[in-house]
């Protein structure tokens, strides 16, 4: 990271363990609607949506899946069409060739090894083609089987700005966060940071004057 706020945090706003509950509480009050933005109706659609969301926006994914989920309802549906047809159906999400191959590979594994059901354990989810730890964490968490904390670009950036971690690697950031965030908050904590990052703590122009965490954040410009 360009600048570490950890030592500054301890000096200016206190230890992170003293700040984490107020941070969560204030964000929850400020963003009561902070939930996943992807639209889905079942575990298959959840898995597909999260896989498609890599390197694109939730808005784009939702636009694509509106028609995609009318056409593809079961794992077998993704295997029944030519690969080129599936690629065309998901093309607006970007890197569509790789995503199509991963989708077919994941669906094949669901059929052959998981009785057509999406597993909810991280160790099983990450075996699926195209499913890394972040995707696995999202799928498990949204199914009520939270086993870690999702670390995307917003979570990474805000955790660093708040002095909650000095790490850059998502796995190491998650390791720091699970030691700090109460387990009962693991599922909602990423959503709170994501929505705060979109609405207030914007990457290039953070609106510190409107931030409910201004006195808890060592990166505050106020």
Describe this structure in words.
The protein is mainly alpha-helical. It contains twelve helices and no strands. Helix 2 crosses helix 12 and helix 3 packs antiparallel against helix 9. The longest helix is centred in the middle third of the chain and has 18 residues. The chain is elongated and about 60 Å long. The protein starts with 5 loop residues before the first helix and ends in a 23-residue tail after the last helix. The mean pLDDT is 94.
In short:
This protein has 222 residues and is mainly α. The protein has helices at residues 6-12, 16-30, 43-52, 58-71, 75-80, 83-90, 96-113, 122-125, 133-142, 153-161, 170-180, 188-199.
Describe the secondary-structure layout:
Blueprint: H1 6-12, H2 16-30, H3 43-52, H4 58-71, H5 75-80, H6 83-90, H7 96-113, H8 122-125, H9 133-142, H10 153-161, H11 170-180, H12 188-199
Helix pairs in contact: 2-12, 3-9, 6-7, 10-12
**With helices defined by DSSP (H or I, 4 residues minimum), what is the helix count?**
12
Q: Averaged pLDDT, please?
A: 94
Radius of gyration: 19 Å
The amount of beta strand, in percent, is under 5%
Quickly give the structural class: mainly alpha
- Which residues sit in consecutive blocks of at least 5 with pLDDT less than 50? none
The total strand number stands at 0
H/E element string? Answer: HHHHHHHHHHHH
Spatial shape:
elongated
> What is the straight-line distance between the termini?
22 Å
Main pleated sheet: none
Helix content: 55-70%
What attributes characterize this protein structure?
single chain; 222 residues; mainly alpha; 56% helix; 0% strand; elongated
């Amino acid at each position: 990271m360009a600048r570490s706020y950890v030592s500054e945090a301890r000096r200016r706003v206190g230890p992170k363990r003293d700040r984490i509950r107020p941070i969560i509480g204030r964000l929850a009050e400020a963003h009561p609607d902070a939930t996943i933005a992807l639209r889905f109706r079942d575990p298959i659609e959840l898995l597909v949506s999260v896989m498609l969301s890599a390197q694109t926006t939730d808005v784009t994914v939702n636009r694509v899946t509106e028609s995609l989920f009318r056409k593809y309802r079961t794992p077998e549906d993704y295997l029944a069409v030519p690969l080129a047809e599936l690629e065309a159906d998901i093309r607006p999400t970007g890197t569509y060739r790789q995503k199509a191959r991963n989708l077919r590979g994941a669906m094949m594994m669901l059929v052959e090894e998981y009785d057509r059901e999406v597993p909810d354990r991280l160790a099983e989810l990450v075996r699926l083609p195209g499913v890394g730890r972040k995707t696995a964490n999202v799928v498990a968490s949204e199914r009520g089987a939270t086993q870690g904390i999702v670390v995307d670009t917003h979570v990474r950036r805000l955790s660093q700005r708040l002095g909650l971690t000095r790490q850059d690697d998502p796995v190491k950031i998650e390791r720091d966060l699970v030691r700090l965030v109460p387990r009962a908050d693991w599922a909602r904590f990423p959503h709170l940071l994501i929505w705060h990052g979109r609405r207030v703590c914007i990457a290039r122009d953070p609106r510190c004057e409107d931030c409910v965490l201004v006195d808890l954040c060592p990166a505050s410009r106020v």
